[in-house]
Amino acid sequence: MSSVLWISVAIAVVLLLALAVGLLLARRRRISIVEKPDQQVEAPPAPRRYQAGGSISFSSGGGDPPAPPQAAAPPQAPAPPQAPAPPQAPA
After folding, report:
1. 80 falls within a domain
2. 14 in a domain, yes or no?
3. Number of domains in the chain
4. Mean pLDDT in runs of 10 for the chain (91 residues)?
């Protein structure tokens, strides 16, 4: 037999093997909506109740309320422009 024939047979065997493995994995990973009767579903664990370990303590503040922020000085308006002086007649 020639080497081309052996290579073709090897490629065909590898492809058939890959196809078989792919089909097998696809069947295993398939999700079924219907539950199997032999499987027993376990109940979820009972919820645990939260119990705080310590108490809450409120501390007093500094006493005086903070001073309100000082308002910024209003910006000064620019001086109005001077009207030009009327031209004087030659003397």
Report:
1. no
2. yes
3. 1
4. 91 98 92 72 78 72 76 79 76 62
